[in-house]
Amino acid sequence: MSKMQNLLAIANEVKEKHANFSISEVNDHCVRLAVFTGEYDWHHHPDSDELFIVLEGELLIDFKDKETAVLKANDSLLIPKGTVHRTRSYVRTVNLCVEHKQAETVIIEE
């Protein structure tokens, strides 16, 4: 039997500027909790869609071929597999990410 988790309590324990770790697995997917300020590299996932759900703060998701998405608390966005993107935030942001457990991340060199 699974134990109940309080996501914001877990996030509040994170003191690093960037943390991203799995908190649960659902079938062949994992749910990751990310707490960060700053920006991540441009990348894509060739074999997995990626769902972002913002719990706190503001998450910016940049795309090479369209406008930046601005997600605030309780917003979600599905990134289709193969889509080049990067995440960034100017304030401490807490979000969930759901992706395939074996999702490959391909970093794009600028």
Q: How many separate domains make up the residues? A: 1
User: Main beta sheet: strand number and arrangement?
Assistant: 7 strands, antiparallel
For the residues shown, what is the average pLDDT? Answer: 95
Helix and strand content put the structural class at: mainly beta
CATH superfamily: Jelly Rolls
- Which spans have pLDDT < 50 for at least 5 consecutive residues? none
Oligomer: single chain
* Helix percent band: under 10%
List the defining traits of the structure above.
Jelly Rolls; seven-stranded antiparallel beta sheet; mainly beta; two-stranded antiparallel ribbon; 110 residues; 1 helix
Quick structural summary:
The protein is mainly β and 110 residues long. The chain has one helix at residues 7-12, and strands at 18-26, 29-39, 43-44, 50-56, 58-63, 69-72, 76-79, 85-100, 106-107. Strands 1, 2, 4, 5, 6, 7 and 8 form a seven-stranded antiparallel sheet that branches.
Q: How does this model look, in words?
A:
The strands form 2 sheets. Strands 1, 2, 4, 5, 6, 7 and 8 form a 7-stranded antiparallel β-sheet that branches. This protein has a two-stranded antiparallel sheet with strand order 3-9. Strand 1 and strand 2 form a beta hairpin. The chain has a single domain (13-107), classed as Jelly Rolls, CATH 2.60.120. The chain is globular and about 40 Å long. The termini are far apart. It is mainly β and 110 residues long. 5% of the residues lie in helices and 55% in strands. It has one helix at 7-12; strands at 18-26, 29-39, 43-44, 50-56, 58-63, 69-72, 76-79, 85-100, 106-107.
